[in-house]
Amino acid sequence: MPDMTILWPAILNGVTTGALYALIALGLTLIYGVLHIINFAHGALLMVGLYAVYFLWRFLGLDPYVSLLIVPPLMFALGYGLQRGLITRAGHGRDENILLVTLGLSIILENLALMAFSSDTQTVDTAYGFSTLDVLGAFVPVPKVVAFGGAVATALALWAFMARTDLGRAIRAVAKEKKGAQLVGIDVNHVYAMSFGIGIGVLGIAACLLMPSYYVNPSVGHGFVLIAFTIVVLGGMGSFVGALIGGVIIGVVEALGGLFLGASLGQIGIFAIFILILLFRPQGLLGRLQ
Amino acid sequence: MKRLAVLVAIFAGLGLLPLLVGSDFWLNAIMLALFSALIGQAWNIAGGYAGQFSFGHALFFGIGAYAVAVLQVDLGINPWLGMLVGGALGAGAGAALGWLTFRYGLRGSYFALVTLAFAEVFRILANSTPFTGAGEGILIKLNPHPAMLQFKALSGYYWLLLALTFACFLSVWWLERSRLGAQMLAVRDNEDAAAAVGVDAFAVKLKAMALSGLFMGLAGVFYTQRYLYLDPGLAFGPTQSVEALLVAIVGGIGTLFGPLLGAFALHLLGEAAQTALGDVPGANMVIYGTVLVVMVLFLPRGLASLGKAGLGKAGGRRQGLRRRKRRAKDA
Amino acid sequence: MTNAKTGGIGRRRFLAGTAAATGLLAAPGLLRAAPEGIKIGLIHPVTGALSYSGTQCRAGAELAIADINAAGGIKSMGGAPLQAVLGDSQSKPSIGASETARAIEDGAIGIVAGYASSICLATSQEAAKTNTPHIVDVGVADSIMTRGLKNTFRFGPGYGKIARDAVTSLDAINKAAGSPAKTVVIVHEDSAFGTGTAKLLSAELPKYGFKILKVIAHPTPMRDFTNIALQVKAANPDIIIPANYYNEYVLFARTIRQQQIKPKAIYSVLGGAASSYKFVKDFPEAAEGVMDTNHWFNPKSDLALKRKKEAEAKGLYYTYEVYLTYNAVALLADAIERAGSTDHDKVIAALNASTWDKHGMPYGPTKMVDGQNTGAQPVNTQVQGGQIDVIRPAEFAQAQVKFPMA
C-alpha cells in the first residue's frame, strides 16, 4: 500500500509531467487532425529540436528558454519543407506510403544524429535545473512549472490562431472538407505544409521546455511517440484543448499507476485508457477539429 | 496454376540452397530474409488483402514465441507440440483482437493504433508476470536435437523456416483463388458496398486476422527455437511489427509475391549498406532509410508493380486501386 | 566518432572508406587483397538502443589490437598482426548471431562480443556451432556461462558475483561506521540486468540484517523519476541502491536532489552512471559521495593508468566497456600466443589453462572454471571531491570510505 502522504505531490507531478507530454502531442494532433496522417517521424523531429537547443546552449551559451525565439521558427521551416518537398510527393495519396516515408525519415534522422553527434547522452546545465517551488508541501522543479505554463499558453495560442486568423480558418476548412476548400480557392498544398510546419514548430517549443529537465541522444524520441499518440486519441484528433486535458490525465494516470502498481506495471494504465477510449469513444474526449 | 508453378519452383529452389551454399553466413542471411518474408506475408493477409493495417503484429509473434518457451521451460512440454499451440494461440489472439476492435467498428488509423496498444500491454504484462520470466526473460535449454526442435546444423532451421514460409505463401495463393479471398478484397476496397451485396464483413475480417495471427505466431515459435532466449522487448517490442509491415509495403501490399520481393530487397539493401559503410555506426542505416524514401517516391505501389505482367495479380488489385483512388478524390 | 582510427586495424574499414568515396561497393575479390593477419570478430551494438555502450566496447577492442600490433603482434606466429572484423548487432540478438557468422566466414578465428546479455547468448551460441572461441566482453547474466558451451569464456565477473560482493562490502562499510544503516530501497530497471541484480540483492541483504523497505522497478527509457523519488522519500531508507542504465541514473540522481532526499548513502550496484566520468563532470554536485559496486581498473597498476591515458588521448571516456573489451581481446591474444596457432581446440585449451595477469584489473591471474574467470571481482568506488576513487577492497583502495555521506 503506498503512503498517502505522497498522493498530493504525486498528482501534482503527474499534472506537470502531463503538460510536458501535451506539448509534444499538440503538434501531432494538429498534423493528425488536418492531414489525417500518422507521423512516425514525430519522435525523431523532437530529437532534432532537442539537439538544436543543446547546441545553442553549448556553443552560444543560449539558455534553453531564450532558444524559444530561435528553435521553433527553424523547426517550422523544416516541417514546411519536409511536407512540401517530400511527404506530399512520396505519399501519392496513399496511407501506406506516407507511413513508409515518415518511417524512413525517422531512420535517416536518428542515424544521421548518431553519425554526427555520436550516441553520447547530452544534458544542459542551467542555474535553475535543480531549483524547486514548494507548492503546499510538494517540491515541483522550476523547469516543470515553466513547461506547464508553456503548454497552457501554447494550446490557447493555437486555439485562438485557429479561431481568429484567416490561415486558421483555411486550415479548418481543409481539415473538414478538402474538396470544398479547393473549390473556394484555398491552396490545399500550402495549407497542408503550413499545418505540418506549425505542428513541427510547436514541437520546437516542446524541445526548448523539455531540455532543462531531460537529456538528448539520437534515440530520445522513442520514449515519447507512443504517449503522444495516446494523448492525441484521448483528447480527440485535432483538438488542442483536448490534447492539454488528455496530457494531464495521462500524466496523472501514470503517476498514480506508478504509485499503486510500480513504474513498470503502472504503464499499463496508460494503455488501458488508450484502448478503452478507442473502443468506446474514438472521437476522443473533445471530439474532432471541425 | 501458372502462379502456383512459379511459387513451387521458387521454394524448391530455395530448398536446395543449403546443399549448394557452403557458407553459414549466407545461409543465415537468406534465413533472415525468409523470416521477414514470412512475417511480411502474415501481415499482408490482414493488411494487404483485408485492408486492416496493423502496427501491432508483434502481439501475435510474441504470443507464439512465449507459448513455446513457457510450455517447454515451465511445463516440460515438447516444442513440436508447443509449435502447434503457439500457432493456435496466435490465430486465437488474432481473432480475439479482431472481434473486440471490429465489433466497435474501428477502422484505419484507429485500428492501427489499438493493435499497437495491445502489443504494448502484453509487453508490460510479460515484463511483470513470473511464468514468463518477467524482465529477466526466458532461456531455453540448449539441446540440439530435432526431437527438441533444435538443430545442430543451420540447414535444419533453414528447412523448418522454409516449410513455415511455404505454408504461409501457399495459403495466400489459395486465398487469392478462394471465395474468402474475394470477399476480403471486397471488404478492403469498400466495406459498405461489400456489406450491401451480402458479404459478412465482420466475419471476413475476423478470418483474415486469425490466419494472419496463425503465421505470425508460428514465426514467433521459430524465433524462440532459433535463438533460445526471449525477453518482453524482443517478443512484443515494435521491431517485428515494423519489419512485417515494411516488408509487405515495400514489396507491394495485397500481392502474393510482394512480401518475398520486399524481404529479399530490403535484406540485400541492408547487406550492401553494411558492407559499404558498416564500420561507421549509423551510416548504413542512413543509406537504408534514404533508399526506402526514394523507393516510395518512384515506386509507390511496391516492387511487385515492376513485374506485374509475370507475377502480380493484376485484376482485383488494380480495380481496387482505381476504386480507392476514386474514393480518395471524393474524400 | 570516438573510434580509434589507428593503422593496421581494419581492412574492411579502409575498403569501406574507399568504397564510400568512390560510391562503389567493395567487391569480394578486392577484400582478399589485404595482407594476412589473425582476424578477430568484434560484434557490438554500435547502432540502436545500446549504441553508446557498443561504440565504447568497439573502441576498447580496437585500442587493444593497436597496442598488441605495436608490440609486435603474435610473436609465436611470426609476429602476425591482429585484424579486426567489425560487426554491428544493431542492438538485436538475431543480427548479433548473423554478424558472428559473417565474421567467422570472413576468417575470424575468435569472437569478442556482444555487450548486452541477450546478445551474448546469441553470439556465443552461433560461435559454438563452429567451435570458435568466444569471449564475452561485458554481458553479466550468469546464464551465459552456465549453458555448457565449451567455446565461451568471460573475463569479467557475472552479476551473481557482483551482487554478493556488493552485499558483503556494504555490510563491512556499515559495520566499520558503527552500523548506522539498517534499511534499504532498491530502484532497478526492469530488463534482465536490473531485475536479475535486484533479485539477488533482495535474497542476500536480509542475511546481513538489512531491511528492504521497497523494491521499485522501472522501464527503460523512463521519462520522469519524480514519482519514484517520492516513494523513496516516503519510505525514508538509510540506503538507496540503484541498478539501472546511464540516462535513468542521471535523471534519478537529479530528482533525488530536487526532492531533497538525503539518505546515508547512495550505493549503486552496476550503476549506470555512478562511476562514470561523464556524470561526475556534468553533474559534480549530484555525483558527490555516490558509491558504486562495479567493474573498475586497478588504480594502482601502471599498466591500467597508461591505457587510460591512451584512451583519453583519443577523446574517449575510460568506461568499463572500454577496459573490459580491451582485456577480452588481450586475453584472446594471449591464448593465441601461447597456443602458437589459431586452431580452435588449441586456442580453447590455452584459454582454459590461462593464468594471464597483464590486465591492469583488480583481479589476480585469470583462472577459468567452465569458462568463467573466477579471479574476477568488482570493486567499490566513491565520488570524492570530483574524483572517482576506489574505496574497497583495501589492497586497491585510493581513499577512505566516506560513510555516512555528509
Task: Please tell me about this protein's structure.
The complex is a heterotrimer of chains A (290), B (331) and C (406). Chain A has 290 residues and is mainly alpha-helical. Chain A contains twelve helices and two strands, in the order ααααββαααααααα. Chain A has a single domain (4-123, 133-280), classed as ABC transporter involved in vitamin B12 uptake, BtuC, CATH 1.10.3470. Chain A has helices at 7-35, 42-60, 71-91, 95-117, 142-164, 166-176, 178-183, 188-210, 222-235, 240-261, 263-266, 268-280; strands spanning 132-135, 138-141. Chain A has a two-stranded antiparallel sheet with strand order 1-2. The longest helix of chain A is centred in the N-terminal third of the chain and has 29 residues, at 7-35. The radius of gyration of chain A is 19 Å and the shape is globular. Chain B is an all-alpha fold and 331 residues long. Chain B has helices spanning 2-20, 24-49, 58-75, 79-103, 108-126, 154-177, 179-189, 191-196, 201-227, 232-236, 238-251, 258-277, 283-298, 314-330; strands at 138-139, 229-230. Chain B has a two-stranded antiparallel sheet. The radius of gyration of chain B is 20 Å and the shape is globular. Residues 309-331 of chain B have low confidence and may be disordered. Chain C folds into two domains: 11-157 and 301-373, Rossmann fold, CATH 3.40.50; 160-294 and 379-396, Rossmann fold (3-Layer(aba) Sandwich), CATH 3.40.50.2300. Chains in contact: A-B, A-C, B-C. The interface between A and B is large, with 47 and 46 residues.
